[in-house]
Amino acid sequence: MTSHHREAVGQRFDPARMQHARRKSWAALQGIQARMRPGISEDEARAEAEQVFAELGMERLWHPVIIRIGPNTTKTYRERSIPDVRLGENDIYFIDLGLVFDGHEGDVGDTFTVGQASEQQACAQAARDLFRDVADIWRNESLNGPSLYNYAHERAEAMGWRFNHAIKGHRVSDFPHSVHKGGDLGDFEHKPAEGLWILEIQIAHPTEPFGAFYEDLLTQAAP
Fold first, then answer.
1. In which domain, by residue range, is 165 found?
2. Does residue 2 surpass a pLDDT of 60?
3. Across residues 52-59, what is the average pLDDT?
4. DSSP per-residue letters across 18-49
5. What pLDDT score does 223 carry?
6. DSSP secondary structure, 11-22, as one string
7. Overall domain count for the chain
8. pLDDT of residue 221
9. Is 124 a member of any domain?
């Protein structure tokens, strides 16, 4: 693994279980996506997510379920949603999950659209494309965390989107990763090790009130 203290893990840490938690977390996200429909609120979507988690055998949350709709897709993790927003007929939303399976942390996020929302759909796809671009740079070059996020900012602007600098990625591991004080990926001055860091990407339209989010575990195998 690594000898850097910010990449420390617990005694029960198992890379295979990290991948298991990742797969189950993506399955949970897809299960919630299948329940999203015009008219649903963020609170209602979170309530329905509980059934998805139960069916998949989730042990616990390690961070609250985040579901953002419409103008709330520009908000960061710590910002409160505008209340009473419901998914429109032609709209955008994202899902951000931090779930524990078999004692290990999954953290996944993706953005989707409903109806005829071409600009929003382009934004959602741009977040995915930017994630993959940055992840490829991480695989092929010895860049540290700040350099990865500087590259992400430059690429986002070149693609025509605003980049959210408040989102910097973070550590995961066997639960709870917080005891290791890994901090933000965007502040990690070394090349991040495989299977320990979540790369988060959040962008927004330059003038319209919507954005997109994508996150996943950095691994040598591209998704």
1. 5-217
2. no
3. 98
4. HHHHHHHHHHHHHHHHTT--TT-BHHHHHHHH
5. 67
6. TT--HHHHHHHH
7. 1
8. 84
9. yes
